[in-house]
Amino acid sequence: MANANMNCWPLIVIGGSSERGQETMGAFQEFPQVEACRLYSKFSVRPSSIEAIPSVIEKAVRSSIYGRPGACYIDIPADFVNLQVNVNSIKYVECCMPPPVSMAETSAVQMAASVIRNAKQPLLIIGKGAAYAHAEEGIRKLVEQCKLPFLPTPMGKGVLPDNHPNCVAAARSRALQFADVIVLFGARLNWILHFGLPPRYQPDVKFIQIDICAEELGNNVRPAVTLLGDINAVTKQLLEQFDKAPWQYPPGSKWWNTLREKMKSNEAASKELASKKSLPMNYYTVFYHVQEQLPKDCMVVSEGANTMDIGRTVLQNYLPRHRLDAGTFGTMGVGLGFAIAAAIVAKDRNPGQRVICVEGDSAFGFSGMEVETICRYNLPIVLLVVNNNGIYQGFDTDSWKEMLKFGDATAMAPPMCLLPNAHYEQVMTAFGGNGYFVQTPGELQESLRKSLADRTKPSLINIMIEPQSMRKAQDFHWLTRSNM
Amino acid sequence: MANANMNCWPLIVIGGSSERGQETMGAFQEFPQVEACRLYSKFSVRPSSIEAIPSVIEKAVRSSIYGRPGACYIDIPADFVNLQVNVNSIKYVECCMPPPVSMAETSAVQMAASVIRNAKQPLLIIGKGAAYAHAEEGIRKLVEQCKLPFLPTPMGKGVLPDNHPNCVAAARSRALQFADVIVLFGARLNWILHFGLPPRYQPDVKFIQIDICAEELGNNVRPAVTLLGDINAVTKQLLEQFDKAPWQYPPGSKWWNTLREKMKSNEAASKELASKKSLPMNYYTVFYHVQEQLPKDCMVVSEGANTMDIGRTVLQNYLPRHRLDAGTFGTMGVGLGFAIAAAIVAKDRNPGQRVICVEGDSAFGFSGMEVETICRYNLPIVLLVVNNNGIYQGFDTDSWKEMLKFGDATAMAPPMCLLPNAHYEQVMTAFGGNGYFVQTPGELQESLRKSLADRTKPSLINIMIEPQSMRKAQDFHWLTRSNM
Amino acid sequence: MANANMNCWPLIVIGGSSERGQETMGAFQEFPQVEACRLYSKFSVRPSSIEAIPSVIEKAVRSSIYGRPGACYIDIPADFVNLQVNVNSIKYVECCMPPPVSMAETSAVQMAASVIRNAKQPLLIIGKGAAYAHAEEGIRKLVEQCKLPFLPTPMGKGVLPDNHPNCVAAARSRALQFADVIVLFGARLNWILHFGLPPRYQPDVKFIQIDICAEELGNNVRPAVTLLGDINAVTKQLLEQFDKAPWQYPPGSKWWNTLREKMKSNEAASKELASKKSLPMNYYTVFYHVQEQLPKDCMVVSEGANTMDIGRTVLQNYLPRHRLDAGTFGTMGVGLGFAIAAAIVAKDRNPGQRVICVEGDSAFGFSGMEVETICRYNLPIVLLVVNNNGIYQGFDTDSWKEMLKFGDATAMAPPMCLLPNAHYEQVMTAFGGNGYFVQTPGELQESLRKSLADRTKPSLINIMIEPQSMRKAQDFHWLTRSNM
Amino acid sequence: MANANMNCWPLIVIGGSSERGQETMGAFQEFPQVEACRLYSKFSVRPSSIEAIPSVIEKAVRSSIYGRPGACYIDIPADFVNLQVNVNSIKYVECCMPPPVSMAETSAVQMAASVIRNAKQPLLIIGKGAAYAHAEEGIRKLVEQCKLPFLPTPMGKGVLPDNHPNCVAAARSRALQFADVIVLFGARLNWILHFGLPPRYQPDVKFIQIDICAEELGNNVRPAVTLLGDINAVTKQLLEQFDKAPWQYPPGSKWWNTLREKMKSNEAASKELASKKSLPMNYYTVFYHVQEQLPKDCMVVSEGANTMDIGRTVLQNYLPRHRLDAGTFGTMGVGLGFAIAAAIVAKDRNPGQRVICVEGDSAFGFSGMEVETICRYNLPIVLLVVNNNGIYQGFDTDSWKEMLKFGDATAMAPPMCLLPNAHYEQVMTAFGGNGYFVQTPGELQESLRKSLADRTKPSLINIMIEPQSMRKAQDFHWLTRSNM
C-alpha cells in the first residue's frame, strides 16, 4: 500500500489471533494481542469486521508515517481467513496522502540563525530524523555555505557523507564537550547523546532543537531555540536566513583547529591499531580492511557491542538512509532481519546494490538461522561475523581448555563467553551460500574480494579476532556505554 | 508551575500511592497506579527519587501542553512525604518554554486558499483546537473578510461570538449536509461531526483540515488539503493569501440564502417552543429566559443529555474559552468540577465574572455534593438544574404514584427515571448557599435576577420542566445521538 | 443468574461501549474498556457475538465466585442493543454449580492441631474469608470447645458475635503483640494486620494460615502450618481433631488474664470518653448512644477515617456478613452504594431488617447524592453522618471565621477541612426522607428512636461532634494508620 | 533457591532494566518492563530497593509454584548492579515451603466414584496437571485396579507409560467421541481437547473434572462432578472409595472391544505407512526407526507442525515429566531452550540420561543457533530435524528449480516453503558436534546408533523426508488442527 511518491515506509505488523468464536474458551494461541502490543505501537487494533479491514489498514499506514514515525499492529482473527463477504460491501479506501509538512515559525527561525551566527564553537548534530525527512540536500548546503562542523548519530550517518571535510565524528567527545551552540537535526538528547548534560557538555551550551515531535522539544535540557516542524522544511527556512544575510563560520577558527587536531590524533591512533600485524587481528585491523573494499553505494547493517560501536567509527557511509543499526533501543537480534528487508528493497530499486551486514558473534547468535531465508531468496547480502568468542570479550581455545580443567563448562564458563572457534561460516554453507573462515588480513581481503565478486550467492565471512580485543582508550569514561 | 506568559494550562494529576518499602506486601491501597493511568494519559510516571521530582514535573507539564494537549499523571509514593533530602542535591528545573509553534507549508496553504476560492457552498467549522490555539482574531478576520459562514463545535463555541452574523449554527444539519468545501479549524471528524461521512455530508465534499496533530489528518475521510501546524499560525498564513489576492464569498449567494432561510425557520420553531405558556415549562422556554439574563462575559459550564444538547443551541457564548461541556468523550459528572476550576481561575483573573453551570438533574446527581466545595470556598457559581425527573425523560408525580400501585419502585421504575419533585435547591441551602425551586417563567426570571445580583453567595435554581419534554423534531435522524 | 442455592453473590460489572463498526473512527465514548478493566478484574471480556453472551456471562459469574472471589467485567458494544439474532442460534447455558469445596491435607491439619495444643498464648483471627465461606458454625464450636480467644478483622466482624465472651477485640494490639500462635481464618497478613511482622508481633510467633488462595499462603511471613482449602471445610477438619482428642486452652491462664485486664482497662477508657457530658460530643459518646439502639439484626455499613475506625470498635455485630466497610483497599465513596445494595437484598430476604450506614462527613461527600436513589426506592436505610467538619479533624464555626480574617478560604483553608455546620440532613429532606440535625446526646437518642420507628421513609441524622475530636491514645504508634 | 524437597521448579524471569535515575530521560533500553510483562506473568514486579530483593524473590518463587504454576517476572534496574548496601540491612528470607496440598470434599469424591461405577463407556484423560502433581502412582493404581482406559494429553504423556495396556491413545478420536463418562486429571477442556463439545464428544457426556484451579472447573461444559484440589491427593481420595468398595470396569465390555479394534486398525495403518520402502521416507517410517532406538529414560522434546503431532503418536514416553512440547500455547521456537534446560537438569540428576529433541525444519529455524550453547556446554542432546522443506509441506529440489523458471524466489515461493536440501546438520558441525545427513532408513538407524553411542558430543541428524508427506487420513475433520 506504500505510495510510489512516498519517501517513507510504513511499519505495520499484521498478527493472526485465534478465532473470535472461541475466545474465552481456551482457543489455540488465544491471547489479548491488541492489548499486548499497545505499549509497542502507535496504533494497535483489530478490525471489527472484514469490511473494516481497508479502513483500518489506511489508519495504520497513516499513523505509522504521519508525525514521528512508528510501528502499528493489526490483529486478524483466524476466522477472517475463511469468512465470505459481499465484495460490494467493502469500501475501497485510498492510500493516505504523503505525510503533511509543517514549518517552524519565522521568528524562531530568525532567532536560531542569530544564535548560530553568534556561536564561538558551533556544532551540528544530524540524527535519524534528518534522514527520515530527506533533509540531506538542505543540510549539506547549510554545512558547506556556513562552514560548520557536524556529527552524525548512529542512524544519521550518511545524511552527509562520513568523509565530508566538515564531519568531525573522529573528534566526537571533544566536539560535544566544548561546543557552545549545538543544532540538533532530528536527534534526541537521549542516552546516545548523553542526555545533553554536563560533564559531556558545557553547562551553558545552547541547544537549537529541530524536531517533528513537539513533546521531544525541551526534553532533559532547556533549549535556546526550538524549531518544530519537518526537518527538511525547517532546514530550508534556516538556509533562507543565511541566504538573505550570508554568513560563514571562520574555517581558521581556534575551534576548527582544535577539532582537526583531535581528529588527526584519533585517526592516527586508529590507524596504528589497524596496522598492527599481530594475530589474531584486532577490531581496527578488520574494519580497516573491510572499509577498503566497501562499495560506496552499499547498505551497511550492523549490530553487536564493540563490533557495532567500533565498526561505526571506521566504516563509512556516503549516502543517506544506507545504514541500519541497533539504534535508540540497542536491541540485539535485529541485524539479519534488517539485512533481509534492505536486500529486498535493494533488489527492486538498484539491482547491483549489496547489503553488508557486520555482526558481532553474539549478535549473530540471536537470529543466525535467517541465513536460510537469505539463501532461499538468494539475497545480495555479505555477512561479516567479527568473532571474539563472546560479548565484549571471550576466551581463546587454550584458555577455554584451561578453564575446563577446573570443571564442567556449565559451571565454569563466564556468562559472556561463547564457544571458541565457532565456525559460523558453515551455517552459511549449510544452506548453499559461500563461507569463509579468516584469520589473517590477507585471508580477509581475499574473502571480501570473492564475496563481492560473486553476484550469484550470499556469503558469510567468519573473522577471527583477538578474544580480548578492546576498543581504544577513551578520553572520557563517564557513561562509556553510550558512546555510540 | 504554569508560566505567566503561557496561554495554556497543563493538566497534571498527582496521585499518592503506597509506600515503596511495602510494595508486594499488601500495603494500604497498593496498586500499579502508573500502569493503570497509562491508557488515560500522555505521560504517566513515578519519579524514581525525590531529587527527580522537579524534572518529572517539568516533563509532565511540557507533555501536557506541547503538541495536542492532554492529561499527565505523576505518582508520589507515601514514603516521599516524610523523606529528607539534602536541598543541594535537588536540581532546580525551569518551567518549559511556551509551546513551540509550527506552520503549514506554503504550497499547501496556497492550495487551501484556491480550494476555498472555488467553493460554491463553503463552510468553516471551528473546533476546540482553535480555542486552545487562541486563533480567534485570525479566524474572525478570515470570516469577515471573506464573508464565509461558520459553525462552532461544542467546545469551539465563543471563538467567534454565537451571535456573529456569519454563524450558521441554527442551520447546522443543513450546512453540513450541503457544503461542498469545509475548512476544519482544530475540529476532529469524530462522532460529533458524524465522521465526515454521507449521508450527513455530500459524498464529494472537500475537507481542508487544519490541525496541530499530524495523525489526525486524513482520519475517516481523504481530505482535499491538510494544513499541519498551530491553528493560529496557519490561520494567519491563510489570511496572507487572501490579503495578497483579496476575495470574498458572495453574500447574496444561493448558499447563503438557503442557510439564512433554514436558520430563520429553525429559530422561529425554537422561539415558538420557548414562548409556550403551558406548565410545566419545556427546555426552550427555560433556556430562552436564561439566555436573556446570561452575563456576556460569564463562563458557561454544561452537562446532561437534552439539557446540554438543547442548552448549547440556545445559550450563547460571546468569548473564546468561556464554555466547558462534556465534549469529545461525553463524560457525565464533570460539570461541577469544571465549574469549580473555572470559578477559581475567574476569581483571580476577573473578580466580577460568574460561572453559570447548567446541569441536567441526572448529571447533577453524579457530583452534586461538590456544592459543599462551592460553598466552602464561596465560589461565584450559579447552578441551574433543569429537572425533568430523569434521563431523556422521567415521570411526573402523578405517573409515579400510578406506577407504584403496581409494585415497589425497585421493581417497577424504569432505569432512566429519577425521583419526581426532587428538591435539588435544598442541597445548596444545606451548605449555606441560595436555593430556588421554580416552576414558572416568572419564578425563573426572578430567581435568576436574585442569583446574579447576590455576589456574596453561590446559588442553585432547581427548574421543574415537563418530564416528557423533548427536543424539537430533527430533519435528520441518522445518528441523532451525535447532534451536538 | 445467581443460583438460589448459592451462598455467594457474583460481582459482575456490565459496561456499554461504542459501536463496533465505529471503532477507530472516534466513536462516542470509544475506549479500550476491556483492557482498561484488566487490572481491576479477575476476568474482563467482550463477547464476540450476541450468541456468545450467555456463555460469557456464565464464565464471568463462575470466575467471580470460584476460588478467591473477585469482580469481573463484561463489555457490551452499543450495536448489540439493536442487533437481531435467531433465537435458535443462542445456546442456553446453565448457571454454574456452587463453588467447589476443597479441604486441607490431613497431615497438615494434624500438625495445625498439634501447634494449637502446644500454644502458650494462642489467638484466632477471623477474616472476611471466613465470612464468605460461611464458616461461622465451625469457628464458634472451635472457639467455645477449645476456649480460645479470637479477634475479627473489619470485614470478619460478626462471624462470631462481637459480644462473645472470647472476643478480645478490645485488647487487639496486646493480643497481636504477645500471641505465640495465631490461626488466620481467611485473613491476609496485609497492612490491616501489620504484615504479620515485628514489632506488632513476636518475632517467633507461629502463624497457622487457613486460606482458599494458595498464593496467599506464606505471604510476608513463613507460616508454621498452611491449610489450603475452603475455610468452612478446613475448620471442620480442625474440629475433628479436637473431637478425636478433646483439648481446651485453660481459661484461667495468664494469657487470658492479661487479655481480660487489658480489655477491661480499654473498655473503661472508652466508657469514660463516652460518658463525657461536654459538648460538642466526641466519637465515643456518639457511638455509645448509637450502639444502645442498634437493632441486633441490622446491616452495618461504614466508611470514613476516625468514624470508621472508632465506630468499628464500639458498634457491635452479632451476625455474620452483616458489616460492610472500606476493607482491604480502604476506598472512600463506597458506603452509600454498599448500603443500597444491602438494603435491596434485605428487602427481599428479611423485610423488617434495617441498614445502618455510618459515614464520616468527608466520606459522605463522595457519593452523598445517592440519597436520591435511597429515597426513590424508599430503602430501609438510616444514614448517620458523624460530622467533625473535616478529614481527621476540622474547624468549628468560630475558628473558621477567624481564619477567614486572614484571607479567602480558597487560599487559607487547610485541605482536610470541610465547611463547618454543613446541614447534611437537608440533603435527605431534599428528596423526601427524614432529616435530623443533632448536637446533644438527647437529640441523638431521640432522632435514632424516630428513625428506627419510621418504617415508611429513610432517615439521615447529621451528628455534630467536636471538630478536633480524636481517638483515644494508642499503646502503639507504629503504623497507626493501619489499626483497623 | 529451589528447595531440595520440592518436586516443582519455579519459573522466574529476571530482567535488567535501565537505571532508575535516568527514567523518563531516554535511557538505554528504557521501557516499562514490569508493565509489559504483566499479561504474561502471575507476578511481575521491580523490588523497590536492594534490601527488598530477597523478599521479592521469595514471593516470585512462591507465586510461581503455589496454586496453578506459572511464570513470574522480576525487574532489576541497572543501577542496582553497582549499588552498595549494608549487609546487615538485608533481611534473609527463607525459601517458601513446598506447595500446600488440598483435597476435594468427601461428598464430591463419593459422587465421582458413583458416576464412574455407573459409566458404560468410561475414559480417563491424564493432563499435565497430573504430571506436575506427581500423581503417577495413584493414577496407575486407579487404572489398573478399575481396569479403565486412559488417554494422555501431549504434556500428560508418560504419567503412565504409553505402552500401558490400558492406554487408548491409538484410538483417541473414537475414545473421546463415544465415552459417556470422562475423568479429567489436570487436563483443561481447551482447543487440545476440542473444548469438550459435540461433535467431538457425546452431547450428554459426563465430565468429572479434577483440577488445582477452581476457576478452571466448569469451563466450556457443565461437569457432572468437580473435584478441586491437588491432583495427587484427590486421586488418592478416589482410590480410597474403590478400596472401600472394590469395583472394576469389565475388561470384556463392548467399549473395550471397540477401542481395541480401533487401536488395532490405527496401529496397522501406521505400521503400513512406517514400513513403506519408497524414498524419500515418510513421517511414520522415520518415527518408527527413532522409536526403536529411543532410550527408555530419555527426555523427549518436540516442536513443529506434523513433526510434533505425528511424532507424539509414535514416540513413546515411559516416565512422567519426560516430555516437553509446545503444549497449550503451541508456541514455536521453544524446543531447543527446553532441550537445554532438560539437559542441564539431567546432567545433575542422572548423568547417563539423554535428551532427544525432535524438531520440524521450520521449528528448528526459530532458535537453531542454540546449538552453539549445546556445544559450548557439551550437553547430552540428540537433535533430530525432520526435514520436509517447509511448514506442513514443502517442495523438493526439482519442483523448486521448476518454480524458479517463472521468476525470482522472493516473488514465487509459497510462504510456507523452505529451502530444499538445507543441511541443518552442518549447523551442528559448525560448532563441533556430530552431524548426519540421512535419506534412507538404513542411514537413519546408523546415525541414531552413533549419536546415542557417542557420550562425548551432541549430535544433529538431518532427516530428509518426502516434502509432500502428510499425516494419515483422519476419521474426523472438525477442528483437525487441534488433534494433539
Automatic annotation (TrEMBL), chains A, B, C, D:
Any Pfam family: TPP_enzyme_C
GO terms classed as biological process: fatty acid alpha-oxidation
UniProt domain Thiamine pyrophosphate enzyme TPP-binding: residue ranges: 307-463
Cofactor names: thiamine diphosphate
This protein's GO CC annotations: peroxisome
EC numbers for this chain: 4.1.2.63
Reaction catalysis annotation: a 2-hydroxy-3-methyl fatty acyl-CoA = a 2-methyl-branched fatty aldehyde + formyl-CoA; an (R)-2-hydroxy-long-chain-fatty acyl-CoA = a long-chain fatty aldehyde + formyl-CoA; 2-hydroxyoctadecanoyl-CoA = heptadecanal + formyl-CoA
Name of the molecule in the record: 2-hydroxyacyl-CoA lyase
Organism listed in the record: Pipistrellus kuhlii (Kuhl's pipistrelle)
Taxonomic lineage: Eukaryota, Metazoa, Chordata, Craniata, Vertebrata
